[in-house]
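Sample pair:
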Amino acid sequence: MTLLVLFVLLLFLYSLASRRLERTVITTPIVFTAAGMLTQVISFDLGQGLESREAFLVTAELGLVLLLFTDASRTQLGVLKNIRNLPVRLLSVGMLLTLLLGLLLARGVFPNLTWWEAGILAAILAPTDAGLGQIIVASEVVPMKIRQALNVEAGLNDGLSVPFLLFFMALASQANNSEHGHGGLFQFIGEQLGLGALLGIGIGWVGGWMLEHARRRGWIATSWLQLGVVALPLLCLLASKAVDASMFIAAFVAGLAVQARFPEAAKHSVEFTEQWGQLFNLAVFYLFGILVMAAAAAFTGRHLLYAILSLTVIRMVPVAVSLVGTRLSPATVLFMGWFGPRGLASIVLGLVFLEEETRVTGESTIRLAVMLTVWISIFAHGMSAVSGIGWYVRKLKKLPSDAPELAKKFPSAFESKTRGQET
């Protein structure tokens, strides 16, 4: 109850100064994370009380389930077509290289981790968080195709990270002779991924059909459309819990499926997450600050080294490789590489790993590395957003008028290659 009171009070006080803070480098996640850290410093036993992780996990799961559904429901092929292959490159080549490089460097920095445990760490830290880079996404001085590519990437890579995480968890569990109720690797993958996808398709398609049918016949009040849409990812969560499937896969697939029957789903889900879903996210950052401060004494130089590598080399190299052939300037590649913050998705995936009780020997190493990486990202990316935009705009002014970043129509890889041959 004490934490709830403090959080609500913080929420109220922040609302009073929210407009003024929007003009500074102090982002909302920074404020709530720092407040959680301060709470832990003032009252040491609060962080100890969160060791069960139950309340934290439920809050985080709700936040990510709503976020995944919303991101999927507003994902349209038209967006990918308009900005051509940038998001596709980031989500395919870029993400696979991020997982591979993250695994290899995790194994090098932490020799105590097995290959599968290193894969777990890489998968948890693979997704980016558009919320931490909201200033970038909303900035009109950043070329639309660049900020939209980053936004689409962040909207989809959290859902794409889940299968990899579950796969590595199953392998690590099997290697440690821990069945934890799943009856083997393939059964675990089938239950988590396959059943989760089936639930998502069923709930999204049927729910969307019912909403559209009720809307056309005038049965549903406009004010209830938003709640009707938001009920679908919550149904995914509850159904997945009941049959031991992945709620994140189910919510993400449901967000894609609902569009087939109810095209207005994106509008109503986005309205909810912007107004109410943000509460879950802020609560997660507040509780995360408490946990980080409680674990501060356990961080080592190896955790710090991997956190820095995760936010630089492991992010920037895959982005640079995935963008080869796009003719984007080095400044743009560097800008896109740096602004891949780790946030809510990594926190939740880390909690999912802990909650599954895979019982791997490197659990503590993985937990601490994830916590320190996300903590550094919250502050580093938040406080560098404004200056980063200013630097990037100055670089853009030096580019020729036909630069891909400035073109209204972004050239495909084939068109770029043809132009290069002609010159």
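Residues 178-183, 410-423 have pLDDT under 50 and may be disordered.
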